[in-house]
Amino acid sequence: MLPQGTQPEGAANQQEAARQVRDMFTRIAPRYDLLNHLLSAQMDRRWRARAARELRPILQRRDALVLDLCCGTGDLAFALQRNGPARIFGADFSHTMLVRARHKALALNQAQPVTFLEADALNLPFADKSFDLITAAFGFRNLANYQHGLGEILRVLKPAATIAILEFAEPPPGFLGDAYRYYTRTILPKIGGWISGDARAYAYLPKSVARFFSPGELAAMLQQTGYTQVRYHLMTLNSVALHLAVRP
Ligand SMILES: C[S@@+](CC[C@H](N)C(=O)[O-])C[C@H]1O[C@@H](n2cnc3c(N)ncnc32)[C@H](O)[C@@H]1O
Question: Which atom of ligand 1 is nearest to the CA of 122?
Fold first, then answer.
């Protein structure tokens, strides 16, 4: 059966799942960037840069409004900003992640800084048909209700606007896929737990990826929700997928 939404251990319902996810990211925020870069051997930067390059035709439009959902400490929002003059907003429901994003924005001193705001992806504080592009990097998998999340994004996208979801995926069986699984399930939680002081958060990561849709299933769900031109690109041993689709 396909998962309805993320389900951290012990969460009895969607409200509890969302609260646990928010508390977890709030706890690991101080070490989040360091661990991202370390545990992915800096590949996380390349995955976001690739996504931003793919979206350049929209980012190059001066009038385009872009929302990076589940923006965390802002790395995808900053990558989008580097690729054109579009106006970028970053939204997340963890206040502590946003504080770090704002500090990074100040240090970057961009001519047109990213605007960060606190918002729940399942209840967006925006009018219908507001954005030309909505992105989410490694955040969509953490939503407590995927169908609701895709519907809410569809609502606030303008007609002909684009959704882009960058997410982890399970590589297929075989030597490299199995080595990847050994790394993410055994080594990564140990290093992540040790450096962040939160072993539970870094044990959640591989479990949530294993529970999440395959790239084909996510593509089918986008189509069922009403998106068109659904396509995806796989990267790094098929362990990361970039899904793109258009609101009709
Ligand atoms: C793995 S981090 C990804 C952060 C960033 N996009 C990146 O690429 O590093 C996931 C983020 O999603 C946020 N998040 C999860 N569920 C959310 C929701 N319902 N509404 C807003 N943010 C959410 C978390 O607070 C966290 O900052």
Answer: 19
The amino acid occupying position 215 is: P
Kindly report the protein residue whose alpha carbon is nearest to atom 25 of ligand 1. Answer: 94
Q: Provide the residue type at 203 as one letter.
A: A
Dihedral sign for Cα 71, 145, 134, 130, please. negative
Q: List residues bridging with 233 in a β-sheet.
A: 242
Asked if 203 contacts 132 with a C-beta cutoff of 8 angstroms, the reply is no
- Rounded-to-integer distance, Cα 115 and Cα 46, Å: 23
**What is the identity of the amino acid at 50?**
R
Give the end-to-end CA distance of the chain in Å, rounded to a whole number: 28
What is the model's pTM?
0.96
SS3 of residue 19 by DSSP: helix
| pLDDT score recorded for residue 1 | 82
Ligand 1 site residues, Cβ closer than 6 angstroms: 18, 21-22, 25, 36, 70-72, 75-76, 92-94, 97, 120-122, 137-139, 142-143
Cα–Cα dist 93/97, whole Å:
8
The model's pLDDT over 105-160, given as tens digits with 9 standing for 90+, comes to 999 988 889 999 999 999 999 999 999 999 999 999 999 999 999 999 999 999 99
